[in-house]
Amino acid sequence: MHDLLKQLSAEHIELEQTLAGIRPKQFRTEEGRSRLHRLRDLLHQHIQRERQNLYPVLEQAGRTDERLAGQVSRSSEDLEIVSSLADEFVRKYESGQPQLIEFATDHGALLTILRIRLRQEEETLFPLFERVSRS
Prior knowledge:
mainly alpha
């Protein structure tokens, strides 16, 4: 496996664990707010790494493969959606004001969306990257 993909896979684990580690009662504490900010920072760093290192290779290959170009475009759009959802989640809960049930619902939804997105990257984008980077 390519070193970049190893790094991105390790970041996926860290992102998922960081989000999963924020508990409903905890978001009202300083530790909870710190975890929220850590999640946001990790996600932004991860996206930046993908934008700088993963997507350019895939986009270059997509110039001669319409199907690949479509996959990369959809994946890029999805990445922005997940990033926006995570940013909104952090903004909403960093004040510690909303109700616990609201947090639990939003947290569960974001965790599910993040997990789906990360698996899609690993099952779709990573193999594509390996294939085109060998060419």
